[in-house]
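Note to self: the last two entries modelled the partners one at a time, which told us nothing about the interface. This time every component goes in together.
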Amino acid sequence: MFVPFDSTMLLAILPEILLVVLAGVVLALDAAWQPEKRRWLGWLTVVGLAVAFILTATVSQPESEPRLLFGGMLRDDWLSFAFRLVFLFGAAITTLFAMDHEALGRKGEFYVLLLVSTLGMNLMASAGDLIMLYLAIETTSIPLYILAGFITTDDKSTEAGFKYLLFGAMTSAVMLYGFSLLYGFSGETNLYLLAGKLGELPMPALLGSLLLVLVGFSFKVSAVPFHFWAPDVYEGAPTPVAGFLSTASKAAGFAVLMRVLLAAFPAALPSWQGLIALLAVVTMTVGNLLALAQTNVKRLLAFSSIAHAGYILIGVVAVNAAGMNLGMASVVFYLIAYLLTNLAAFGAVATFGRVSGSDEMDAYKGLSRRSPALALVMLVAFLSLSGMPPFGGFIAKVFVFAAAVEANWIWLAVIGVLNSIIGLYYYLTLLKYVYLYRQDNLEEEQKPLPISRPYALALVLLVIGIILLGTAFNPWFEWSRTAAASLF
Amino acid sequence: MDFGALLLTLVTFAPLLGAAALLLVKPEQKNALRWVALITALVTFGISLGLLAIFNPADAIRIDLPWLSVAGWNVHYHLALDGLSILLVLLTTLLTPLAILSTWTSVEDRVRQFMAFFLMLETGMLGVFLAQDLFLFYIFWEFTLVPMYFLIGIWGGERRIYAAVKFFLYTMAGSVLMLVALLWLGTQYNTFSLPELIAQRANIPPQAQTWLFLAFALAFAIKVPMWPLHTWLPDAHVEAPTAGSVILAGVLLKMGTYGFLRFNLTLFPQASWEFSPWMALLAIIGILYGALVSYAQTDAKKLVAYSSVSHLGFVMLGLFALNQQGIQGALLQMINHGLSTGALFLMVGMLYERRHTRALDAFGGLWKVIPVFGTLLLIVSLSSVGLPGLNGFIGEFTILLGAAGSDALGNAWNQIVTALGVSFIPMRSAGGLWFAGFAALGVIFAAAYLLQMYQKICLGALKAENQNLKDLSWREIITLLPLLVLIFWIGLYPKPFIDLIAPAINQMLGY
Amino acid sequence: MIPLSWYLIFAAALFSIGLFGVLARKNAVAILLGVELMLNAVNVNLVAFWRYRAPNMIAGQAFAIMIFAVAAAEVAVGLSLFISIYRRRKTVVANEIDLMKW
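The predicted structure of the combined assembly is written out below.
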């Protein structure tokens, strides 16, 4: 499994190298360019990410057998490959959303931080060692703390950064304590060597350290009871950042969760399945019920993203040791669909918020008359979130539930589908504002709602992606399966 | 791919193409939009007639292509037109252009979106009737919800938003358990294809069959709607625009009864047999309850809405008689109800367009001012009542015959009688007759409430504000004409229709 | 030699004190201090485990050093966020940072 160093290994970390280079270039140009030219930094970042995406997809495909590179620090497999593409895509879309944002668009450091955070996510997805894992998580989180509090002139934004940092620092310390115990019990830091030594451990010790580790991961994926930060941070953070947090950052959390659970804790499979099942039930129920009461769209999306973490956890539960079933593949597929969908939702909110200056639901009244195109995007995104065909969200949900049914967790699937009805209710509530209600002052509906080019480009891409995932889902699912299979 | 398979795909997706074509027309050109929609619907109808021409009752027209196949999962793009679905497909393609025609003057706001949603709805409905793959079926099933939600929510009456949300949540709540059930079937037997699952149905353990039956039944029962799950229906009907009501009553409700026929009865025959007396009981309660509540209504549209509860009770009774006559009658009654109730809703809508009210006591004596309307309303009402010679009679009578002769119902009755220890001999001999008897009361009630409605609208003293009502225009008559022709045709000479469906039903029942 | 368990108990105590500080204190700087205590508990754990369980492998020590570095970065970002809040609101007490409901 371990591979001694040779120069071809650098190819495996090509995306990371490209990200570092890109971040350096942006930083340098930010210093060199006059302020009026800095809008081009955004396009530069997008193009750079696109190039990195294409190069990664073509050149740095993993070999058929998973390899542990750089002394076991990184694992080069299809899972990390898939997730890295997802992160690069998410970062590119987020850049498009940020480009015309008043407070973000012309700041080179914004793009640099975004790129570094993406770098961290890439490493999270491929980390094979506890040390690397910790470093990657912090490389992701620390820039995100700054990004959430990026607008220093805005009270809500700084407050978001503040809360995010305090929560993140605490949970990562707890997780780290778990790491130290794992190391102590086994004398190893490599995830794949851990498993062999941990198997002999008494169950309470194993579960204890697992619980500590889960605290950190639950924070990253915003699972109950470590979700408190999400609504405030989403509401306060600049909308593009909130979108990035709720999708790419969450996906990275799940990538780590899956890898650690399967690589380090196969011995405790039945125990953690029960634990995660409980977590899933609580997470989706709490998320959905609290979402019902929201009047701010970003807060609503925050609770909905908590609920979605719950659905995804169902897929995590539904694995069997052989790994031949749908469980993990459905998680990967769900994350891809969720990334596209939620980015579209946040993108639409960002587009609207930029013009109207409000994220309250009331402001969305009559949107379908004011801007039919934007309303259509919201329709697609929210129906996909609620799991209606023919959109990606539907297929994703079906796969997750099917995985649960297949693995004989039928009650879990039933709770999942019942929850999705609650979800449907509040997504419909928002669509009601967009399509059915009218503004009290009908002149409001006549005001133009311009959608600038980067927004339009990103939204169109996302909508096409959502529909593709929902109709021509075979290749995507095949891809998710290959990725998931490499976990075992 | 042979010609029939091509036509199947075309008929399903032609409306969707039409909806896309609407995007090319400017929103201001309302008449152009209407024409595009109407022509699309007519072309779809034409294609379905083409299918009818090449249809052979003994055999299904089928298209079956693999769609997704991983990890033992096999989802197919599998459509088929057979005796169970052909009449419903024709009904859908017929009612859609008529409904579009009825909106010509009544829908002025956001015409493009209205037509687009309407055509999308048609694709969804056709897909439901044609899908032979459970997964595909579920997709189409859900796909119908969104357009209907908007049709009610944007173009509906005063409480439209409440009604739209209620409609959506009710139906969705019913169908999610069906999703779990069909996922179980799909993962357990590695196929979602209905014929393949039917071939394996003997392997489904009895207890699982019971649960699966219930999960499917809940989804369909809400859609039908069966008493006591019907409360969304009056709201949805009253608030929906006329065209929406026509499609809702004419086609969407049939998705429920069709679901019972297509999935519950074929996949879980044992459970169907066991549940049949209970379903029949609910059906009869629905028949009587719907009829009584109809009688008490003062709003014409609400009256027709509740009459649907009653009429669909007949359909359910026929289905769960579980014999040839019962099912044949039920299938025929689905069509009849679509025609009669569709026509009734259209006519109530025409009244509403003229007077902007549907309260029965706002009218009276209309016969004198608008005789054409009066005549047609009489025919349609009588067809809904079930007068011999018109279509309703054929369906209801066959259903009652089926129920009376039903083994499943009779058997259950005998068990009850034995359990109670009653030894009165006639009670023992013909159990199904009791079910049929109570249901027949519904026919009598139907005469009462429909004729009362007719009397309040068309007979009696003419009110001053109704003096100057205009009689039906040519467009309106053309809208109603096809329905009237079929009402008489089925009533007088039902054989061609029965010939279309009988072989499939016999095959299903294993004759 | 001092048994390993003493170190572990010490680390656990330190961790608990830190956690208590995080949960009980309201001032953001104090909360961050609590986090630092927790991280140091982890470091004690790591170094002790390294010494007793796997003295031949460098991993434990390396891990501890990494944590030093990352913790420093975290504190730097944290304090700068506190400053940006303090500039506008003249407070870094968590209870008073309540524009949005927790």
